[in-house]
Amino acid sequence: MIETTIGDILSDKALVLKTEDHYIYVVRDGATVFYVGQSRCPLTRLLGHMGQGEWVFPGGVSSVGEMIRVNRPQSLDWQIELLTLADCNAADVNTAEGALIHLYAPLLNRQGKRRRSAPLPKRYKTPWPAIANEGVRLA
Question: Which of 42, 6, 36 is nearest to 23 (CA)?
Answer without folding.
Answer: 42
